[in-house]
Q: What sequence folds into this?
C-alpha cells in the first residue's frame, strides 16, 4: 500500500433503518486496511407505540457491543463520537433509511413520453408510491384533476417539463391546478415539491407552489431534447426524501445531525455501491442487485458505472406481502413449491405474513412458502425495472435477463436463508440469468452501508469490498437454449489447483453442483452443445479460472425461461430435486 | 437481552382513550369534561363531494386579471346551485353577464379569472362512537374520549365503523358461520363468529343488514367481497382456518347482548391504529388501568402464537432462550418454551419472533 492509500484511523458506524429491522455495522482499520468488524440488529421503532428511531438503534448497538466487545455508546446510550484514544466510540457515522410510512407522490410533466417519463424514472428510484400523474396527455378536466390531487393527498410532488429556455405556459397551468388542489388539503401536512424542469421557471414555481409546499429546485431532467440527465434530479430527490423523513420520523433530526446532515435512502446507497462494482473487473459484464425488504423491493443494475435504480414501494415479503397477490397469480407462487397447496391456503399464508411481518418460518414447509413468495416478489420488481434498462444491454434475447457478471441478493430472506444453496436457488429461479455469473448474498445490508460510506470515505468502501465480507454463494453457469429433457446440454470440467479433477455432462432440464471449497481456485471449462449459449455465443465454450463459494460451481441447464411440467406431482418432484441438488433439502 | 414482542389486547376491563378526528378541519361541538353517548355528534365539517372550476373570466368576457371586482361571493361563502358568484354589467348597463355556481356548496377560492366551488351535499358529522367523557379537545380537528370497557384488537379491518348490540353465533370458538345460523333477527346487531369460509353465507349475512361482523378467521378468497361490504368487518386472529382464541371467545361470550363499538379501521403500523371492538362497561370505584404495550417477553407472560402449526394458540411463557437454537426449518433463532392450551405437558418451543403478548 502506498502512503496515499493508507487510511486515517477511522472507525465508521453505518446504520440502516429498514421497515422491520434497524441494523448497525462497524468498520475499522485492521492491519492497515478497513475491515467489516461487526454487526448488530433490533426491530425498528419508528412506528407506534415508540415513534422514536433511537430506541431500536440503542438495542442494535447493544448487540453490536456484545458481539464485538467494542464500546460505541456512553452510559447514557449516547454515541461516542469521535473515538477516544482508548478505542471507545466511532469517528464517522453514516445513515441509510427505508423505514417510515408510505410516501405518497404525484408526478407532473409536460409530455407523457418525455418529461413525465423522466420524472417517473427519478421517482421510481426512491421509496415513493406514485398515486397519480398529470401531463398534457391527461384527458381529465381541470376540476377532475383537482379532485385527483386531493384524493392522492401527496407528501411529495415531482415536477419536470420544458427544455431550458423553452415554452412554459402549459406547465404553469398544470402547476396552478396542483397548487389550487394542495390549498384544499388538510392543514398540517405540508407537501414537498421537487422541480426539475425548465430552469427559467424556478422562481415562478416557488411563487405558485411556495404557499402550499416546500419547493426544492434541481437541474432540468431534459436541458435540451437530445440530452436527458436524470442523475442530479435523482440526487436532489434523495435529499428531499431524507428531509421528509427527518420531519416525519422521531429521532431522525438528531441522527441527521450526527451524520453531517446526510441521510441516504437505502436503495440509493446500495445503487452507489452497485455502480462502483460495475467499474471493477469482476463487474465487467454488468452488476445486478435485488433487495427484498419487508415493505419495498429495490433493483439496481449497472453497466460500466451507469446505474439504473428502481424501487417497488409497497411490495415486499413482510408488511407489503399481500400486495404480491395483486401483482401475481397464486399459481405463479405455488409453482416453486416442492409440495401441493390450495390457492386459498397459499393466499392465507401471504395475507398472514402481511399481518405478522416479523414472524419467521419454523417448519420446512413454511420456509418453502416464504422463499416461493420471495421469488415472485423479485420477479415482479425486475419486471418493473426492465423497461428503464438500456435497450442495448448485452444479453441472450430481449425477453431474457441481460448478461450479468455479478448478482447480489440483499435482504434477510436471502442473506439469512438456512442454507446458502437456497439463497442461490432463489436468485437463479427468480432472475433466471444466462451465462457465467457470481452469486453473492448480503443478509446484513453491507451493500447499502458501503454505498453510504463511499460518500465520506471511498477508500473504506474499496478496502472492505476487497476483504470479502459478503457471503459468496459461488459461480453459476446458466445455459440459454431449448432442448429435450434429459438430453446432454453441456460438458463441464473443473480442475482444482492441486490436481483434483471432475468432469460432468449436464442434461437439459437439470441443475448440477460441482463442489469447490470457499476461496479455492480451479480451472473451469464449459463446452455447451449446439444451440446453447453460456454468454460466449451459441455453441461456444469457455475456460476460465474460478474460485469456490459457499455452494460451489452451479451448472443451471434448466433452460430460459424455466419450463414447468403441467402435472403438479411432476412439478413438485422437479422442484424437490433442485432443492436437493443445491443442498437445501 | 430482552425481547419485546408486539402486543395484542384482549382485555376484559381497562380505561381506554380514543382519538376521534375529522378528515378535514371543522368545528368541535362538545366541551372538555362533557359526558357523551356513542351516537352524539362531537365535531362537524364539510367534505366536498367534488370540485367545480368555474371560468369566470370567460363567462363575463373579461381578461383573467380583471374579474376580482365582479365577484359577489368571497372565499368561504356558502353558495346554492344557480346562484351568481360573479356579475358584470356591460357598457351602458344594458346587459348583465353572470357566472353562477354549478352546485350547492362553498366558494373555496377565486383568483386569476377562475372560481373553485366545492360541491357539498351534507355536513360530515363525527360521532363519539363510545360513551364516555371528553378529556381533550383537539382544536378544529376532534376530541379524545375516555371510557372504561373491554377491548378486543384484531389484525384486519375493512375501514368502517358502527355501534350496536353484540351477538355471538355458534357454539364454539372455531364455529363456522353457516347458512343455518343466519336469520332476520340479526338485523342491526354486531355479529361474532369463529370462522367464515362460504361466499354464499357472506351474501346471506349482508342481506340481513347487520351493523357489523367480527370473525376469528376469514377465508382469504372472501377478502375482496368483505372489503366491499357497507358495514364494518373485523378479523381478529388471521386468515384461513382459524377460530377465536380462548380469551377472545370468552370476552365475546361474556359481553354478548351488550352495546359495543366496532371500529374496523385499516391497520396502520406507523400511527398504531388497529381495528378493534370496544364494549363500554361501568367503571368500578377504582378506575381500571390503561392497556399496557411494549413489555418484554418474560416467564409467566400470556402469549399467542402467530405462525406455524400452533398459530392462534394461546399459552404461558415458561422460559425464554438467550441463545439462538436450530429449528426444523434450518434457521437459528431465539425460542421461548410455551405451555400451550392443549399442548404437551413440558411445553412447546416457539421462535420468539412468532409470539405476541396477549394483554
A:
Amino acid at each position: 500500500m502506498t502512503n496515499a492509500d493508507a487510511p486515517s484511523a477511522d472507525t465508521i458506524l453505518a446504520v440502516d433503518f429498514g421497515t422491520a429491522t434497524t441494523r448497525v455495522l462497524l468498520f475499522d482499520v485492521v492491519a492497515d486496511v478497513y475491515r467489516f468488524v461487526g454487526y448488530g440488529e433490533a426491530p425498528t421503532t419508528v412506528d407506534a407505540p415508540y415513534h422514536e428511531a433511537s430506541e431500536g438503534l440503542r438495542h442494535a448497538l447493544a448487540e453490536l457491543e456484545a458481539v464485538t466487545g467494542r464500546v460505541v455508546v456512553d452510559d447514557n446510550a449516547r454515541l461516542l463520537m469521535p473515538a477516544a484514544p482508548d478505542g471507545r466510540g466511532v469517528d464517522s457515522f453514516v445513515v441509510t433509511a427505508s423505514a417510515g410510512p408510505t410516501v405518497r407522490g404525484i408526478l407532473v410533466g409536460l409530455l407523457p413520453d418525455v418529461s413525465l417519463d423522466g420524472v417517473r424514472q427519478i421517482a421510481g428510484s426512491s421509496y415513493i408510491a406514485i398515486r397519480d400523474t398529470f401531463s398534457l396527455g391527461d384527458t381529465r378536466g381541470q376540476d377532475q384533476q383537482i379532485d385527483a390531487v386531493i384524493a392522492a393527498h401527496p407528501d411529495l410532488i415531482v415536477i419536470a417539463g420544458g427544455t431550458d429556455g423553452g415554452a412554459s405556459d402549459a406547465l404553469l397551468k398544470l402547476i396552478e391546478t396542483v397548487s389550487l388542489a394542495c390549498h384544499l388539503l388538510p392543514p398540517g401536512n405540508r407537501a414537498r415539491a421537487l422541480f426539475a424542469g425548465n430552469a427559467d421557471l424556478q422562481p415562478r414555481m416557488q411563487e405558485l407552489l411556495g404557499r402550499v409546499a416546500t419547493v426544492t429546485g434541481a437541474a432540468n431532467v431534459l436541458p435540451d431534447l437530445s440530452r436527458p440527465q436524470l442523475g442530479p434530479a435523482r440526487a436532489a430527490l434523495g435529499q428531499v426524501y431524507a428531509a421528509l423523513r427527518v420531519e416525519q420520523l422521531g429521532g431522525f433530526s438528531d441522527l441527521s445531525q450526527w451524520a453531517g446532515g446526510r441521510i441516504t435512502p437505502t436503495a440509493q446507497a446500495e445503487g452507489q455501491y452497485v455502480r462502483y462494482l460495475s467499474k471493477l473487473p469482476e463487474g465487467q459484464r454488468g452488476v445486478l442487485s435485488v433487495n427484498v425488504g419487508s415493505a419495498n423491493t429495490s433493483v439496481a443494475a449497472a453497466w460500466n458505472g451507469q446505474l439504473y435504480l428502481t424501487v417497488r414501494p409497497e411490495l415486499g415479503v413482510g408488511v407489503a406481502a399481500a400486495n404480491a397477490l395483486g401483482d401475481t397469480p397464486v399459481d405463479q407462487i405455488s409453482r416453486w413449491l416442492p409440495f401441493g397447496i390450495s390457492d386459498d391456503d397459499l393466499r392465507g399464508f401471504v395475507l398472514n405474513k402481511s399481518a405478522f411481518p416479523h414472524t419467521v418460518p419454523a417448519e420446512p414447509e413454511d420456509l418453502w412458502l416464504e422463499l416461493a413468495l420471495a421469488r415472485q416478489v423479485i420477479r415482479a420488481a425486475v419486471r418493473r425495472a426492465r423497461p428503464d434498462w438500456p435497450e442495448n444491454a448485452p444479453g441472450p434475447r430481449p425477453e431474457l435477463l441481460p448478461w450479468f457478471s455479478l448478482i447480489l441478493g440483499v435482504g434477510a430472506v436471502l442473506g439469512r436463508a438456512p442454507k446458502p444453496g437456497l439463497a442461490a436457488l432463489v436468485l437463479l429461479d427468480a432472475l433466471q440469468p444466462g451465462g457465467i455469473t457470481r452469486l453473492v448474498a448480503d443478509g446484513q445490508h453491507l451493500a447499502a452501508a458501503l454505498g453510504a460510506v463511499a460518500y465520506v470515505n471511498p477508500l473504506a468502501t474499496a478496502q472492505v469490498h476487497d476483504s470479502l465480507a459478503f457471503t459468496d454463494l459461488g459461480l453459476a453457469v446458466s445455459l440459454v437454449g431449448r432442448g429435450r429433457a434429459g438430453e446432454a446440454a453441456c460438458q463441464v470440467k473443473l480442475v482444482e489447483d492441486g490436481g483434483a479433477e471432475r468432469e460432468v455432462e449436464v442434461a437439459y432440464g437439470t441443475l448440477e453442483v460441482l463442489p469447490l471449497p470457499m476461496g479455492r481456485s480451479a480451472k473451469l471449462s464449459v463446452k455447451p452443445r449446439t444451440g446453447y449459449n453460456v454468454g460466449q455465443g451459441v455453441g461456444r465454450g469457455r475456460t476460465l479460472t474460478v474460485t469456490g463459494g459457499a455452494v460451489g460451481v452451479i451448472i443451471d441447464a434448466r433452460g430460459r425461461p424455466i419450463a414447468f411440467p403441467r402435472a403438479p406431482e411432476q412439478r413438485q418432484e422437479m422442484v424437490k430435486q433442485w432443492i436437493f441438488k443445491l443442498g437445501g433439502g | 437481552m430482552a425481547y419485546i414482542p408486539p402486543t395484542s389486547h384482549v382485555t376484559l376491563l381497562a380505561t381506554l382513550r380514543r382519538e376521534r378526528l375529522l378528515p378535514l378541519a371543522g368545528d368541535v361541538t362538545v366541551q372538555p369534561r362533557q359526558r357523551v353517548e356513542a351516537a352524539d355528534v362531537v365535531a362537524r365539517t364539510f367534505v366536498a363531494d367534488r370540485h367545480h372550476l368555474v371560468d369566470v373570466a370567460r363567462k363575463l368576457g373579461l381578461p383573467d386579471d380583471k374579474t376580482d371586482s365582479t365577484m359577489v361571493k368571497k372565499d368561504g361563502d356558502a353558495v346554492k346551485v344557480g346562484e351568481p358568484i360573479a356579475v358584470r354589467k356591460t357598457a351602458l348597463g344594458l346587459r348583465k353577464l353572470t357566472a353562477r355556481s354549478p352546485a350547492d356548496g362553498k366558494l373555496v377560492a377565486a383568483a386569476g379569472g377562475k372560481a373553485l366551488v366545492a360541491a357539498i351535499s351534507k355536513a360530515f358529522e363525527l360521532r363519539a362512537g363510545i360513551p364516555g367523557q371528553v378529556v381533550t379537545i383537539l382544536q378544529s380537528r376532534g376530541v379524545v374520549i375516555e371510557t372504561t370497557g373491554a377491548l378486543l384488537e384484531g389484525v384486519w379491518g375493512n375501514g368502517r365503523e358502527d355501534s350496536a348490540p353484540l351477538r355471538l353465533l355458534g357454539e364454539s370458538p372455531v364455529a363456522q358461520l353457516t347458512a343455518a345460523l343466519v336469520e332476520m333477527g340479526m338485523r342491526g346487531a354486531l355479529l361474532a363468529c369463529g370462522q367464515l369460509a362460504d361466499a354464499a353465507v357472506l351474501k346471506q349475512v349482508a342481506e340481513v343488514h347487520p351493523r357489523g361482523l367480527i370473525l376469528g378467521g376469514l377465508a382469504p378468497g372472501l377478502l375482496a367481497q368483505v372489503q366491499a361490504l357497507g358495514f364494518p368487518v373485523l378479523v381478529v386472529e388471521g386468515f384461513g382456518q382459524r377460530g377465536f382464541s380462548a380469551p377472545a371467545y370468552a370476552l365475546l361470550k361474556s359481553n354478548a347482548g351488550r352495546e359495543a363499538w366496532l371500529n374496523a379501521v385499516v391497520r396502520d403500523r406507523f400511527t398504531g391504529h388497529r381495528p378493534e371492538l370496544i364494549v363500554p362497561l361501568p367503571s368500578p370505584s377504582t378506575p381500571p388501568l390503561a392497556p399496557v404495550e411494549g413489555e418484554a417477553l418474560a416467564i409467566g407472560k400470556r402469549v399467542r402464537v402467530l405462525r406455524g402449526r400452533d398459530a392462534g394458540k394461546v399459552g404461558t411463557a415458561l422460559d425464554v432462550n438467550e441463545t439462538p437454537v436450530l429449528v426444523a426449518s434450518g434457521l437459528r433463532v431465539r425460542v421461548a418454551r410455551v405451555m400451550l392450551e392443549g399442548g404437551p405437558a413440558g411445553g412447546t418451543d416457539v421462535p420468539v419472533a412468532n409470539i405476541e403478548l396477549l394483554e
Remarks:
- Chain A touches chain B through 48 residues (CB under 8 Å).
- The longest strand of chain A covers residues 33-43.
- Residues 290 and 299 of chain A are 5 Å apart (CA to CA).
- Confidence is low (pLDDT under 50) at residues 1-7 of chain A.
